[in-house]
Amino acid sequence: MWIDTSALGGLKTSPATPQTEPLLRKAPVTTPLLQIERLGKAYVADKPVFADVSFTLERGEFVCVIGHSGCGKTTILNVLAGLDTATEGHVFMESREMVGPSLERGVVFQGHALMPWLTVRQNIAFAVKSRWPDWSAAQTRAHVEKFVQLVGLSHAIDKKPSQLSGGMKQRVGIARAFSIQPKMLLLDEPFGALDALTRGTIQDELMGIVRETHQTVFMITHDVDEAILLADRILLMSNGAETPDGYKPGGIAEVVVNPLPRERTRASLHHLDGYYDLRNHIVDFLVSRAKAH
User: Fold this and answer.
1) Separation CA 181–CA 153 (nearest Å)
2) Inter-residue contact 187 to 108 (CB < 8 Å)
């Protein structure tokens, strides 16, 4: 029902019906923003953490990855960010192979990673000046203030990180990442250390910004409800495991397409038809089929 088998290499999709086949023939061919082909990472040669990971990200798409610790989620994100290298496989952005970090990709880590000696304004301005070094002071100031306002921190723009709460620091990190207007935003469990109320508030803010900017997002999370709320597609990753036939590396076991209306909210999520079926499917995978260490 939700599984996008076309993204899983070895599986076949069901044949098109007579009603849909003409539409499929007429559909324009577009190149995804991001293409990951047969990615693998091994620290021990004969026991890769994951292998044969292939998927795409379309422009404006929000994709979440869920899996147990040790399955390689963060390693994949770091490869996409240019902060790590894969043992095998390739990553292409707009048909060009990615090598190293780039301002085309913004990253928000689990820790806020702010410079403590700089104010909110200065932390974001540092990124903006790196992206547009020829901008005037007035251009930089206006741009910074726009993205600070987007995350609701105009009142704290001249405060330093030590004067901010954990949730406010994460908002600064999100504003900084969005301010360089990257082609893709990479989020590594950015709300993991926050309390439930703060987490929910920032989730709503993130959804609003993504809809306003049409940003492409790749996000790691351990929170099933967070993935259902935010993502258009959810990648379910399995862990590597010893089997009677030998070691089997981890990888993407399923690609789940979110069938819920895209304009969903936290308050209405659990009232939507199909929510509990979708949630139960993902939880069942994590409990029964992810082969966690």
Assistant:
1) 19
2) yes
